[in-house]
Automatic annotation (TrEMBL):
It catalyses: L-seryl-[protein] + ATP = O-phospho-L-seryl-[protein] + ADP + H(+); L-threonyl-[protein] + ATP = O-phospho-L-threonyl-[protein] + ADP + H(+). SUPFAM superfamilies: Protein kinase-like (PK-like). This is Serine/threonine-protein kinase RIO3. It comes from Callorhinchus milii (Ghost shark). PROSITE patterns: RIO1.
């Protein structure tokens, strides 16, 4: 009796009964095995069943091939199971038992240049030579030392160079590189990698032009966070020793910071200003600390030197930026200018005759105050370090300024006098003194000479005759130093000027 069919259920399928003899049939087992092998190796022709097996060698070969087929089928199943739908596939092709009648299923696009089996420049693939290199009996032997084969191998090895090293498509052009050329390219690739690493290191740990490194940015962020600065607007000037940024001031310790500030960031490398050590190693204020510091910490000492020089000049009443704060190699000062526009340099500003004459006499007074009251020599005074703002000359960049007792102090002073005299004489100031007269005016001496060489000789003779009878000369009373010691140091400076 058939049961009633449910309207929601699937129709009953009729199952064909199978006898036990059919299930245990050997023909059915062979058919299922053949279907499985055909699915695993669709392009492989298997050995027939009805072959001659009277020979033991042939029988052994057939059994070995059957074992290899089963082993390869197992590898293929494991490979498919591991790969699945993954984009990155694993291949067991190198472990397969490949027979002469089986075609290689490896893709031409997946060529490993280190695998000699797939090397497109193998001698046996380029010609009819055998694997041992014999072209024929009595013919030449092709080995790895063959010039053509070696050249093609070198071209294939270029793929192992660094990714940023462009090698082109040498394989497509059948390019042949000699060992000498390949070794030169390989060495160049290694050198380029090292140079790139050094440039990256330098970029991360140094202050480059119009930009600052990570540590400097962190210092600026801290200044903004504590309220010292409201914001940092950008770069306004660059030089061989520093980068100057513009910022808006805030408050620090209940003191109001100027509304516009100049943030001077000293470069943390000595590449662009390698001669700065001569300005600081012989300075008595920093002489003991200079020899114990590495080049990076010397930059902080250089910034500290400018801070002390500015404070000394400001105390004497010289027009210069006002120091706000110093943090490592970052010096915050008052901004000379207005509305983020810096005051023009004396070199760039166009002044009439009256203003130019006014500027000249201001510079003369500034040099005398700097020498006599501040006990300093600017050492880099020129129209590039003098600003014109509100009809006044402002002095900047005093990090290299030294005391007159410095061994090079007289040399630097004479160079400053020469730069100032030449600029104002070219600007048309009729009252401009030459460098020798200006030198006498600043040092309160009265040495007369017609040319520079005679002037230096007379200065040397004057101080040489003064040594035996030197007591408390008024020339050196303003320095507060021992007169004889100062005189000997100045004479050393004169010797260097003559050289």
């Amino acid at each position: 009796v058939s049961s009633p069919c449910s309207p929601w259920g699937a129709p009953l399928s009729t199952v064909t009964p199978c006898s036990l003899s059919d299930v245990m049939s050997e023909e059915l087992a062979k058919e299922l095995q053949q279907q499985e092998d055909t699915a695993a190796f669709p392009n492989v022709a298997f050995v027939g069943e009805g072959g001659e097996t009277s020979s033991d060698l042939l029988l052994a070969q057939m059994l070995q091939m059957e074992f290899d087929r089963e082993y390869d089928a197992q590898l293929r199943r494991e490979e498919n199971k591991l790969n699945g739908d993954s984009k990155v596939s694993i291949s067991f092709e190198n472990y397969r038992m490949v027979h002469p009648f089986e075609d290689s299923e490896s893709s031409e696009d997946e060529v490993d240049w280190q695998d000699t089996y797939h090397d497109p420049y193998r001698a046996d693939k380029q010609s009819n030579a055998s694997k041992r290199g014999f072209v024929g009996k009595g013919k030449d032997i092709t080995t790895k030392h063959d010039e053509v084969m070696c050249g093609r191998k070198n071209t294939a090895r270029m793929e192992n160079f660094a990714p940023e090293f462009q090698v082109g498509d040498g394989i497509g052009m059948d390019l042949k590189l000699s060992n000498r050329v390949f070794n030169a390219l390989k060495q160049h690739s290694i050198s380029e990698q090292r140079r790139s690493a050094k440039l990256h290191e330098k970029k991360e740990h140094s202050t480059s032009e119009q930009a600052v490194d990570t540590k400097t940015r962190l210092l600026l962020y801290k200044m903004v966070n504590v309220g010292l600065l409201e914001n940092v607007n950008g770069c306004i000037s660059t030089g061989k020793e520093s980068v100057v940024l513009h910022g808006n001031g805030g408050r620090i310790n209940e003191h109001i910071v100027p509304s516009e500030c100049a943030i001077k960031v000293f470069k943390t490398t000595l590449n662009e200003f390698k001669t700065r050590d001569k300005y600081i190693k012989d300075d008595n204020r920093f002489k003991d600390r200079f020899g114990k510091l590495n080049p990076r910490k010397i930059i902080r000492l250089w910034a500290e030197k400018e801070m002390h020089n500015l404070m000394r000049m400001q105390k004497a009443g010289i027009c210069c930026p006002e120091v706000v704060v110093l943090k490592k190699h970052v010096l915050v000062m008052s901004f000379i200018g207005q509305d983020q526009v810096p005051a023009p340099k004396l070199k760039d500003v166009k002044l009439n005759s009256e203003d130019m004459k006014l500027a000249y006499f201001q510079v003369l007074d500034m040099m005398q105050q700097l020498y006599k009251e501040c006990n300093l020599v600017h050492a880099d005074l020129s129209e590039y370090n003098l600003l014109w703002h509100m009809r006044k000359v402002w002095l900047i960049d005093v990090s290299q300024s030294v005391a007159p007792t410095h061994p090079h102090g007289l040399k630097f002073l004479f160079r400053d006098c020469k730069n100032v005299s030449q600029f104002f004489q070219k600007a048309g100031v009729a009252d401009a003194l030459n460098e020798r007269e200006l030198f006498n005016l600043v040092t309160s001496l009265d040495i007369k000479a017609e040319n520079e060489v005679d002037f230096i000789v007379e200065v040397r003779t004057f101080f040489g005759n003064l040594v035996p009878r030197l007591g408390g000369s008024t020339v050196f009373q303003s320095t507060g130093k021992d007169s004889s010691h100062l005189l000997l140091l100045i004479l050393q400076g004169i010797d260097r000027v003559v050289e």
